[in-house]
C-alpha cells in the first residue's frame, strides 16, 4: 500500500507520498510561475527590445537567461552564463530575476531531497520483507515456467515420456531404455514434419543410418538429441506415448561441417577433433572416483551417455574413412553408450549387420517421385539409388547397364536384395494396416451384436413378466 501511494504507474514519486513533498512541489510551481512571469514581462518590455537578440527565454547551466546582443551588453545588468559561437549573443541572467532563480533552484533541491528520503524509507520497508519477496518472485518464476512449458507442450502436441533408470552395466532388457514413438523435430512445422519411430538399447545400442542426402538422416539425429535434452529439462516431448528416455550423464553431438580457415581444419579434421574429445571424455569418466552417496545417480564407472555422429568418417578417402568409422563404432560399443550415427559408406552396412550391438537403419526414397519420404526404417540398411534415379531422369538405358556391369556382382546382389526387402516390408505394412481395419470392423460388429442381445434379453424378460 505504501508503494502504491508513493509511486505512480510511470515510476515517478507522487505528490501523495508525503505532505512535505506535496507542499514543496506546490512551492516549486509557484516559484516557477513567478520567474516566468517576470521574464515574459522583461522580453516584451520596450526598454529592452533593442538590446535583445530575439524575444525568447532559454536555459544555460540550469538558470533561465535571455539572449542579449553583445553590443548592448551594458544595457542589461546581470550575470553572463554563456555566449554564442560567433560571440554576437550573450546569455544573461538579469539581476532582477537572480533571487527568483535562486528560490526556484532551492525548492527543486529540497524536492529532490524529499524524494530521496521517501525512496529510502520505502527501501527500508522492502528490505524488511526481502525473504517473502524473494520467495514470491521465485514462486512466480516457477509458475511462469510451468505455464510456458504447458503452452509449448500444447502447441507442439507433446506428451510426457517415461523416465527410466538405465546404466550400461545393466543386464539386457527386452524393452529398450530409449524409445521414441512418432517423434517429431520440435523446430520443424508440425503440419510438414514426418514422425519417426526410433529406439536404442536392448538388442542393440548403436544405430547406423544410411540413405540419400536431404533424406532426413540428420533430422533423425537432431530429433533424438533434442528430445533427450528436453526430457532431462523437465519438458514434455513432441512424441506419442509410451515413449521412454533414460537420464544421460553425457550427451555428445558432432553434426554439420565446421571447417575453420583460422585453425586450418578441413571437414575431416574438424569432425575428427570433435570425435577425439568425445572418446577421451568418456574414457576419462570411467576412471573417475566413486561419487558421494547423495550423487548415486551418476555413480557408475561406465556413465550413461548418448552420442550422435553425423557422416561418421566422411571427408577423406572412403577406404580409410570407413575403416576409421568401424574402429570408432567398436570403441563406442566398448564404452557402453547409446549412439546414433549417419554414413554413406556401404562397407558399414555389412559391418552393422555382422556386429552384435549395432543395427542398420535407413531413410526411404521414392523412386517414382525422385524425392525422399523422410520415413526411418530400422533393420534395413539404405540402398544406393543412383542408377535408379539416373534411369528415371532419362539416361540412356545402355549407359545404365554399362554402369551396372562395373559394379561388383556381390554388391549388385546386395542392392537387389535390399530392394526386395523394402518391397516386402511395404507389402507387410499394407497387410498389417488392412488387418487392423478388419479387426476394428469386427470389434464394432461384435459390440453391436452384444448390445442387440442385451436389448433382446431385456425385452424378453419384460414380456415374460
Automatic annotation (TrEMBL):
Listed CDD domains: ABC_MutS2
GO biological process: mismatch repair; negative regulation of DNA recombination
KW Translocase (keyword) present: no
A GO molecular-function descriptor: endonuclease activity
Keyword set, alphabetical order: ATP-binding, Coiled coil, DNA-binding, Endonuclease, Hydrolase, Nuclease, Nucleotide-binding, RNA-binding, rRNA-binding
Coiled coil: 418-455
Name of one Pfam family that matches: MutS_V
Record domain DNA mismatch repair proteins mutS family: where: 305-321
Name of this protein: Endonuclease MutS2
Species assigned in the record: Chloroflexus aggregans
